[in-house]
Amino acid sequence: MSTRADAETSAAAPPRLDCHGASHAGRVRAKNEDHFAILALEQVARVIHASLQDPGLLERLARPVAYVFIAADGVGGSGGGEEASRVTVATMVEYLSEAATCYQGTDAGLEQEFLDQLTARVHQAHRRLVEDRGGERGPATTLTMVTLVWPRGYVVHVGDSRGYLLRRGRLRQFTTNQTMGDLLVDIGQLSEEQAKERGLYNVLSSAVGSDLAPAVGVVDLEPGDTLILCTDGLTKHVPDARIAELLTAAPDAESACRALVDEALEQGGTDNVTVIVARFAGPTSR
User: Fold this and answer.
1) Spatial CB neighbours of 109, under 8 Å, sequence gap ≥ 6
2) Rounded distance, CA 98 to CA 120, Å?
3) Which of 277, 271, 214, 274 is nearest to 75 (CA)?
4) Would you tell me how many other CB atoms lie within 10 Å of the CB of residue 58?
5) What are the strands, taking DSSP E only, across the chain?
6) Angle between the 253-266 and 240-249 helix axes, to the nearest 10 degrees?
7) Running DSSP on this structure, what letter comes out for residue 16?
8) Contact, 279 vs 254, CB < 8 A?
9) CB count in 10 Å sphere of residue 96
10) Running along the chain, 286 residues long, what does each successive block of 10 average in pLDDT?
């Protein structure tokens, strides 16, 4: 996984966030097995009475500690994939709702501890799925999740859903696709063409509920950036250049989500498609 952008970490107040998520079953599948969530984690602090001469105090106390963006693509059919993605997203949401103030600051040791805790929760979701099946293999799910403590995004990734960063018109994928095709090409066992011919880019090498190997990392953000999480129902139909074009043209996050989902449907819509867009206000936000 690519873990760093070129942004400089700072303690500055986060820019205004415009975010939205959208999901569609597509034109072929009868059921939508994707799930997504966008969360704002907040500290609870209410000033009842004070003589402090600080007009920004209440505003600072009301700011979220973190934002969380989660996308999961269930696989397995017959509703099992839908349950796998639901359980996994719910497990991550439950943990973060209990630990809304679990991470603050930029100390490297604390960052790794936080990533370790998130990874442990992914393994917990994995165990829940496996135990519900009596230890047998069955439906599983991808998971792409970013916990944003401005200006850093802490990434946990499993499978072939994707995370992208759009900066000054350039789109960069910060997750690595965990498929058998990517794995065998990376280790030199097959060429890209051979992997494609054998359909191995459609076979996950890592999934929650199956063979699990979470990847973690950090992506740094700047005002003007756009963060995108999506399932492969988008990327199998819409190339990166077109994603960047639609994101740049959209006036807001909701319009961007709608444009991306519509494009995936127009280009075939053979799979469930889920998109999360988070835009951070700045001089280069278009």
Assistant:
1) none
2) 15
3) 271
4) 13
5) 17-24, 34-42, 64-75, 140-141, 143-149, 152-158, 162-167, 170-173, 215-220, 226-230, 273-280
6) 140
7) P
8) no
9) 22
10) 42 82 95 95 70 63 79 82 94 78 57 89 93 79 95 96 97 97 94 94 94 95 97 97 97 98 97 98 60
pTM of the prediction?
A: 0.87
Pair 278, 150: CB distance under 8 Å:
no
Contact 233, 272 (CB under 8 A): yes
Count the helices and strands in the chain (H runs, E runs). 8, 11
Cα 75 to Cα 73: distance, rounded to the nearest angstrom:
7
Three-class DSSP category at 182: helix
Residue 119: its H or E element: helix 108-132
Distance linking the first and last C-alpha atoms of the chain: 26
What is the number of alpha carbons within 13 Å of residue 286 lying toward its C-beta? 3
Radius of gyration of the chain from its Cα atoms, rounded to whole angstroms: 19
Site of tokens 């920004």: 56
